Every structure is written in structure tokens, then in C-alpha cells.
Amino acid sequence: MAYKKEKIVYRFLCSCILRLRLQFVLLLFLLILGLTISSIQPLLYGKIIDTVTSNNVTHFNLFLFTYFTVIILSNILHVTESYYGEWISFRISSKMKSILFKRIILLRFAVIQGMDKGKLLSRLNGDIETITTYIMSVITSIITICMNSVISLIFIFQISGSLAKIALLFIPLSFFANFYFKKRYRALQAKKSNFYDRYYTFQINTLNNIVSFRSYSTICGSLIINFSSLLLFFISAMMIWKNEFSLGNLISFLTYISCLNREVEQILNLNMESQKVQVCIKRLKDIESLPSEIDLIDNMETIKAANEKMLFVDNVYFSYVKENYVLNGFSLEINKNGLYIMVGKNGSGKSTFLKLLVRYYEYTSGHIWIGHKNLMNISIPVLRKSIKYIPKEPYIINASFLDNIRFFCDIESDEEIYKGYRAVGLSEYIESLQEKYNTVLGENGITLSSGQKQKISIARAILSRANILLLDEITSDLDGKSERDINLILKKESKNRIIIHATHRIASAKEGTEIFVVDNGKMVISGRHEFLLANSEDYQHLFKYTR
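Above: the chain's sequence. Below: its structure in C-alpha cell form.
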């Protein structure tokens, strides 16, 4: 099982390297060149110490000049390699985030509704950054570890074979300590990731203070390496006192040993990090395995919705929880254009029914027909071009009036957008602004009123040329004037299409061509406002005292 998990990580690494292979080749070239130049620094430093203690001025000047030249070149290459590495890392993480974000927004509506938003945010940002960092660490570390280890081993054996053997004895102990904690670290990382899922949800909901979370890793390995360094210091001191070793050689030797130990620690850290990456990759693959709307598109015939204005719903049942039906034999029929109002108590099934019509959810049984085509046989892209669902909370992007239409509709010219804004009564306001249609609306349309935001949503729906518009309590938070404006727009547009408006507002209900009263998941009666006031107790209960 562990072997399979390791293979997942390595396959993932290979796919990333192949995608940016030319960039990685250049990065590795810079890395190798920098390591080659910087590897002689400890040796030169030791020579400088020896020339000082032996009063060799000529060699001192030569070694000092060479040493500083090497330092300058090493720093230049290090900065270049770091910058280029960050650029590659950004490319990888951006691509991964783009792929995952696309996958998330294509998840079935029921799946997204049932997930914590913090869990999605944690995977989209935290897990991808962890994986990207690991990818860059592995690729650069392979070269760094190999070159530094080989160079360090050559020089430490050249300087003192006996000290080298003592130093190398402690390395296997570090590996043992690391592998002992490997499984524990993976389990801890899984718990940590689950914690951050909940924590991101908490942040989204409350924007509270950041909570630190710290994990253990390679403490034992560090203690072993530090103990070996102390032992080497003691033995080296004994050799210097016996004139068997020079101070310069000691400094060079300890520097190379430090370099070797650093690479050993890097190997151990990568081993620990691979456990974290395994958890992150599994979490991303969990999202990939969730039901997606792509599956519905791929497995369906492309049957176009007819232009005929007809909606027929026959005995439809639906439940979020098994056997607890929200729609309980829901039926209705609409066979001509008009403004149709749907009223009922909270939880009666109005919003659920509207969402079924655009297939955010799949109904359990019954039939829905759109223009003589079964809803389940119409491809989702075609269906959602024919039917537009407008929620209570309008979605306004931080862009201009023009882009807030372009982003959602296939528009051939700006003149069409102007026409859409004129249709909803926004053009006069927009043209009074300094930037007119290029005015940026701010985050979530912060510069607009609730009514203006809803008018933008309706303008999008009108310009989409949809045959059916579904409005889910869009006037519930509007003042009286804004509600009247919206109702006038809807009445005008209902001459050319079917509009179904779920509402609790009597002013909106009165405007309906026909009103459907929904109770306990069924359409119990329909008619005009005056008829329902006289003949429906449910309708009377909703609106009797608000005439």
C-alpha cells in the first residue's frame, strides 16, 4: 500500500517535469554551475587560514582574491536560480489551481452544497502549494544532494580519512530515526489537513484570528548529527595538539562535513515531506472522484431543447435525504408565454423545484418535459442556454458594466449590451457616471444598490435569449420602488418567454398571469390573485393581511 502511494507521488512529479522540461533543464544547468563554483569555497577558506598562520603573504593574496571572486559568482548564480525556480513554481501551482478550480466549479450542485467551503479552499490553496513546494524541492535537491555529497566525501577523505570514517558512522542512525517517525508523521499530516479544512471554514464564516499549528519532524536526526559534530571537534583538537592536523584543514573538513550533514538532513526532510504530499495528492484525487457535471454531458445525447414554449411537470418526487421528500408528487403545466408566480411557505419546495428545472439536482421519480423533450435527455449546456436560473443573491464581478454582461453572455457587440441595460432601466444611471459603461462596480457590486444588482442579473438573462427564466425570490430584499421597477420589467419580458417567479411578496404575486400555490411539496391550486384569495386557505394565510 505504501509503495503504491509513493508511486503516485513519483508519477505526479514526472508529469510536471515533462510539461516544463526545457525550463527545468535550464534551471538544473544554473544549479549545477552554481554548486560547482561554490563547492571550492571551504577549501579556499581553509587555505586562507593556513597562509595566515604560516605568514605566506603571496599565497594569502591569491587565495583571498580567488575566494571573493567565487563568492560573487556563487551569489549571482544563486539569485538567478532562485528567481527562475520561483517562476517555474508559480507556473506549476497556477496550472494546478486552474485545473482544480475548473473541476470544483463543474462538480454537481448537490455535491458542492454538501461540502464545507473551507475544505475546498484548503485543497485549492494549501494542498497545491504543499505539492508545488515539494516538486521544486525534489528536483533541485536531487542535483544538490548528489553533487554536494560527492564533493564533500572527496574532500573529507582527502583531508583526513580517519575523521571521515567517524563522521560517516552517525549517518545511518539519522536515517533510522527518520524512518521510525515516517508513518507517525503521515498520520499527523492527515489530522493537520482535516484541521485546516475546518479552520478555513471557520475563517470564511467568522474571519477570526489565525491559529498556529505546529508538528514534530526530525528532532532525533538533528540530535544525532549534533552529537557527531561534538565528537569530531574533540578528536580534531587532539590531532592538532599532536601536530597531525592543521587549523585550516580542520575548518575545511568541518565545513565539508557540515555540507554533507546538511544534504543528509535534506534527504530526511524530503522523506518526511513525501508523507505530507501523499496526503495532499489523495485529497485532490478525492475531489476528482466526486460526481461532475462533465459526466452528465459526456454520457448524454445532444438533444436540443425545442423553441416551443411549454413546460409540463408530472408527479415529480425529490428528497435531499432518503425518504424525506421535499417535492411530493409535484405537478403543473404551462403552455404559453407569461409571468407565472409561485408562492408558498418557507420549505414548501419552491426553490428546489426551480433548481430541478436546470438540473442542479436530479429528481427521484416523475417526468419533466420542456417543449416535448424529456428534461433528462436534454444536454446540460443546451438546457442552461434555454433556461436561466436567477438566484436571490446576484453575482456581480469586480469589473465594468460591460464585462458583467460579456462574462456571462455570448454577445456580438456592445450595442446589444446597451440594449439590455435599457430594457431593465439602468442605462440612464450608467450614462450619468464619469466612466459610463466602463465603470468598475467593485467587489460584489459594492457601489450598487440591491435593485441595481438584480437588474444586472435580469439584463444577463434577457440577453441570453433563454426561453424560460426562473427567478428565486429576487425581490425579497428590495424596497417598494425597486420591486415595482423589477415587476414592470418582468411583465414586459414575459410577452416573449415563460417567466416563473418564486416570491413571498404580494406586490409581485399580483402581477402574475397565473399563480401556483405550493404546500408540502405539491402544487395545490392555481389561479389569479382575486380567485385565490376567495378559494385558497393557504393563499389567504400568506397574503390576506397584506392586501
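The radius of gyration is 35 Å.
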